[in-house]
Amino acid sequence: MGGRVLSVASECVPLVKTGGLADVVGALPGALAAAGWDMRVLLPAYRALRAQATDWPVVWEEGDLWGGPGRVLAGTVQGLHLLLLDAPHLYDREGGPYSSLQGEHPDNAIRFAALSWIAARIAREGLADWKPDVLHAHDWQAGLAPAYLAYHGSGGCKSVITIHNIAFQGWAPGHMLGILRLPGHAFHPDALEYYGGISSLKAGLMTADWITTVSPTYAAELMREEFGMGLQGVIATRSRVVSGILNGVDTALWDPMREQPAFGPKAMAGKSAARARLCEEFGLEVPGPLAIVVSRLTDQKGIDLLPQLMPDFILGGGGLIVLGSGDPGMEGAMRHLADRFPGRVAVRIGYDEGLSRRLFAGADAVLVPSRFEPCGLTQMYGLRYGTLPVVSLVGGLADTVIGASPATLAAGVATGVTFHPVDALAFGQALQKLLDLYRQPKLWARLRANAMAHPVGWESSAAAYAGLYERLTA
Questions:
Q1: Which residues of 234-250 are buried (b: 16+ CB within 10 A; e: fewer)?
Q2: Rounded Cα distance, 65 and 114, in Å
Q3: 18 falls in which pLDDT band (50, 70, 90)?
Q4: Domain count for the chain
Q5: From its phi and psi, is residue 412 left (phi > 0), alpha (psi between -120 and 50) or beta?
Q6: Looking at the structure, do residues 113 and 55 belong to the same domain, yes or no?
Q7: In this structure, what CATH number is given to the domain that contains residue 161?
Q8: What is the pLDDT of residues 430-452, one digit of tens each?
Q9: Which position among 30, 74, 97, 367 has the lowest Cβ density within 10 Å, counted as fewest Cβ atoms?
Q10: Is the domain of 260 the same as that of 244?
Q11: Structural domain range at position 104
């Protein structure tokens, strides 16, 4: 069937990225094109983006956009059809999309209301040569777009909102209701009111025609208090229009056959060479499995469990390389581990895309002990590179990794190690299982081949999104 979709987000690879949201927004248009869906992405024209669009044509103008004029520029970058909302009074600033060195921008509620307002107007009225059939909003930053369609007219355009991480909800004080161009009659708990204020994410969840999350398990978890973060009642109320669609990874970009040295399921010598290079780079000698952590260093990611468990893992022959940044206390704890176990533990604070790829290419296992994980891409990179994931059974981790058990090993389908609940006892048992599996070379080789054969691309997920759009517009 096919049609047109306006995707609205605050970040998108390759232009701007702070997390996995950007990867998804950047990958979806290409993945959907094969199914006949023309997706264009609307982003704020942050300072660095605006500099890349100096000669792009203006396709929309807005005279009053919360303190100044705005206009929309259209262009293409690496095959992506982009619309940039150029409003210098809102987006021409130092720092990242949401904050500067001084902290979070105090007017973020208005900055992203403006993005949502323009998205809704384009969805309702269309551009000169293009009108979307579906508006697809991503996370709180675009949450008001479905609300503006609902309260100011949809023009026949359907709306979808995707929750990438419900922890971020876009809160604003209640007195801003009128300022945000939202109707007073909707300020009650069954509509826009949220603990005395306004949540742009809740606004989107209450008004969108459909809600998706980034994994089926996360969709179910969000109806529980420990995962819903205050919005579990909203998700439960709208459960008939909630579905989970797994993210995918760019298998052309993340391809072990394109690494140096190249390797694949039937030619693993290159992975052994990559492991040797990695150990040399970090000055490690590891007789057992070399594990990696590529993550934000926070409690949510379960990083606080590592200091307690690594001594036994290292005693069993294992080694660890950590790449990430986050909570200063966690960063310090990781550095302390490296100081305590020289030659077996190495830490690099920060993020380096090239190093990340070398880690996945050369490591034996990737540790993802998250307390909640909407989808997760790290474990998918691990599968792709034969770097066995050791994951907690939450969210997308539960949906993508088949844990080694007597049944899955007998059936020959296991792709990693899983554990539950998320505590030191269960994670420690999982690490012991990893050590035991590594000591059985034939079984380890089978697990690694299974992991590399597991589909992690966008094909099935894009088909699910296309099917959803078709149902909404039928």
A1: bbeeeeeebebbbbbbb
A2: 6
A3: confident
A4: 2
A5: left
A6: yes
A7: 3.40.50.2000
A8: 999 999 999 999 999 999 999 99
A9: 30
A10: no
A11: 3-248+459-473
